[in-house]
Design a protein that fits this description.
Low-confidence stretches: none
Shape: globular
Structural class: alpha+beta
Mean pLDDT: 92
Radius of gyration: 18 Å
Strand order of the largest sheet: 3-5-4
Number of strands: 5
Helix content: 25-40%
Number of helices: 7
Length: 186
């Protein structure tokens, strides 16, 4: 992948995954932009002297049933280590009026925060299978969610009659404080 000022290499993990029938090289996916929109942010976080100091394993998930989603989460868990970061990118609701979009999106965010698989299956997003994979991976790793921000395109000055929702949730190791530490923080 190339973005202004950087070339981001593919990880060797890509070759490993392609030997598994769950993973296919779908030419139509190369016309999508989901991965490219994330790369400038990653480059900003991890700049290198001439190019970023990371490689990517790009995936675009199509329709998947729960057994395939569980299997993908299991496979990803096998690659989780202290150096690996997973970025799951999904738009929330699309083209609803602002108030309705906020209600739909807050329901989805609540489902993520409470790790409610049933609610995620019914969520109004462009990638419920992505969110389910993320939740299952987080469950396997024992990660807790923290909501960083929610906005929709209306907040950036777009037509509030047809907005797209965006949220940022990070999953992380649980913060385990002693009572004394909790008292100090409060």
């Amino acid at each position: 992948y190339a973005v202004p000022g950087a070339v981001i290499p593919l990880s060797a993990v890509v070759d490993e995954l392609q030997s598994d029938p769950l993973f296919v090289d779908e030419p139509a996916a190369h016309a999508m932009h989901m991965i490219e929109v994330e790369l400038p942010f990653l480059c900003r976080l991890r700049p290198g002297p001439a190019s970023p100091d990371f490689a990517v394993v790009p995936m675009i998930l199509g329709r998947m049933d729960m057994p395939a989603i569980r299997r993908l989460a299991e496979i990803l868990d096998g690659y989780a280590d202290a150096e690996t970061r997973f970025v799951f990118s999904v738009d929330l609701s699309h083209y609803y009026k602002d108030e309705e979009a906020r209600n739909l999106d807050h329901s989805t965010i609540q489902a993520i925060m409470s790790r409610d698989e049933g609610m995620i299956r019914r969520a109004v997003t462009d990638g419920n299978q992505v969110l389910l994979t993320m939740l299952l991976l987080a469950e396997r790793r024992g990660w807790d969610p923290t909501l960083l921000m929610y906005r929709n395109s209306g907040d950036a000055g777009a037509d509030r009659g047809r907005v797209v929702g965006y949220g940022s949730v990070v999953f992380h190791e649980p913060l385990d404080l002693t009572r004394a530490e909790q008292k100090d923080v409060l």
